[in-house]
Amino acid sequence: MAGLLERFRRFDTSRVPSPCFVVDEAALEQNLRLLAGVQQSSGAKILLALKAFSMFSLAPLVSRYLSGTCASGLHEARLGREEFGGEVHTFSAAFTRDDLLQILAISDHVVFNSCDQLDRFEPEIRAARAARPGLEIGLRLNPEHSEGAVPLYDPCAPCSRLGVVHSALRESSLEHVSGLHFHTLCEQDFPPLERTVRAFEERFGDLIPRMKWINFGGGHHITRPGYQVDALITLLREFQSRWGVQVYLEPGEAVAYHCGVMVAEVLDLTHNGMSQAILDTSATCHMPDVIEMPYRPVISGAGDPGQYAYTYRLGGRHHRRLVIPRDAACGLTHRFRGHGLLHDGEDHHLQRYQPAVHRDLELRYGCTARGAPFWLRGFQEPVVLKRKRARCKTQRALSLNG
Ligand SMILES: Cc1ncc(COP(=O)(O)O)c(C=O)c1O
After folding, report:
1. Where would you tag: which of 149, 222, 344, 396 has the fewest CB atoms within 10 A of its CB?
2. Which of 35, 48, 51, 66 to mutate to test the pocket of ligand 1 (most atoms within 8 A of CB)?
3. Ligand 1 centroid distance, CA of 131 (Å)
């Protein structure tokens, strides 16, 4: 977090509307370079999980480094296909027939979450594969090996609805299946992945020789300092050569790790038993992971309760803008859906980027701004913070200094 705060220390928040999210393009590129290095050294392919980071204004940069995107439904699949390019992999806990028909037409891999859905949609799958022989069908499996500390974020927690457990697997449903998927990690480093892969091989090893690819899902904190990148590369290489399959990773958070902040404004100060600062944002609408995980967001320049002269429930001071590091890309990204697309671009000016909002909403929700979800209220027109890329370091300093 210190690195992220330092990066934005001299960022002049008055240059952007509030609330908004700001992403440091140079930091994103640094993460992408590392991930591209893993791809190159291991032979595995890395996809961006759009559910975690979906700023399509940065799609050209992302697609320069990664192999494609993974989607959790139709609108993300369209975003991947239309804006990012590369491979599009779509997994959903369950598909409706209408969505599935469109997803089958634009995805490279479609991953199902149950044998029942594979059976029910067999005619649609058969027809789609006849029309597009390259289309790959996968099945998400649940290795029943928990590594997560927070049950809500643990897809292997008891009674999880995600992935087929061994006892529910039906051989007869696998006719079209050429790949297997598991996603069991959340913000984890290498040892949990290594143990998960072992558990997966123990439970489902008999299926792997029939497959062309295995998708290890997301939750790998590859770009966090200290992540055991070399061990990951070795595991990926060995797994692929042992089983003769293509491995995919689909991290989200690792792509945008330590790349951005959320800017919010204190609108009022009230008192009822304690001092409160009323912001133009809320955890429910703009940072739901704060409630779900839960965690206490860091605010630039603020400390713990009682540490400084003033203690407010949310920190900050009247008419002061707050900078809240969005360390977790999932936090960053859920908020990006449909609003406030901000990034460092080409020149040095703030530019209105209104058409992007409409397009983003259309892609994500199948609606335009008129029918925007409630949590868009209060967000201003998105802005692209532009800067010259040629002299990256100096220009970034200038840009962040305002
Ligand atoms: C199926 C799947 N793949 C990938 C991801 C991305 O995970 P992360 O952003 O933690 O890397 C998620 C996150 O929930 C997911 O559910």
Report:
1. 149
2. 51
3. 30
For ligand 1, atom 5, name the residue with the nearest CA: 218
CA distances from 389 to 22, 270, 353 (A): 17, 44, 19
Q: Which of 253, 330, 345, 396 is nearest to 59 (CA)?
A: 345
Q: How far is the CA of 330 from the centre of ligand 1 (A)?
A: 9
pLDDT tens for 64-102 read 999 999 999 999 999 999 999 999 999 999 999 999 999
Helical (H) or strand (E) element with 75? helix 74-79
Ligand 1: atom nearest CA of 155 is 16
Residue at which a domain ends, from 196, 229, 256:
256
Residue ending a domain, choose from 201, 229, 256: 256
- My answer on whether 237 and 276 are in the same domain is no
User: pLDDT of 276-309, one tens digit each?
Assistant: 888 888 777 777 777 777 778 888 888 888 899 9
The protein residue whose alpha carbon is closest to atom 10 in ligand 1 is: 219
Residues with CB under 6 A from ligand 1: 49, 51-52, 70, 91, 183, 186, 217-219, 250-254, 329-330
Q: Please state the φ and ψ torsions of residue 48, each to the nearest 5 degrees.
A: -85, 125
Q: What is the CA radius of gyration of the chain?
A: 22
Residue 327: which domain range? 2-23+259-401
Q: Do residues 184 and 147 both lie within one domain?
A: yes
Atom in ligand 1 nearest the alpha carbon of residue 220: 11
* Pair 41, 158 in one domain: yes
Alpha-helical regions (H) of 121-189: 122-131
Pairing of strands 275-279, 109-112: unpaired
Q: Are residues 44 and 148 in the same domain?
A: yes
CA 337 from centre of chain = 11
Q: What is the pTM assigned to this prediction? A: 0.81
Kindly give, in sequence order, each residue whose CB lies less than 8 Å from that of residue 21, ignoring residues fewer than 6 positions away: 260, 261, 262, 263, 326, 332, 335, 336, 340, 341, 342
Same domain, 141 and 213: yes
The Cα 291–Cα 358 span in angstroms is 29
- Do 187 and 280 have their domain in common? no
For ligand 1, what atom is nearest to the CA of residue 251? 11
Q: Is 208 exposed, middle or buried (0-12, 13-18, 19+ CB in 10 A)?
A: middle
The reply to whether 220 and 272 lie within a common domain is no
| Cα 48 to averaged position of ligand 1 atoms, centre (Å) | 9
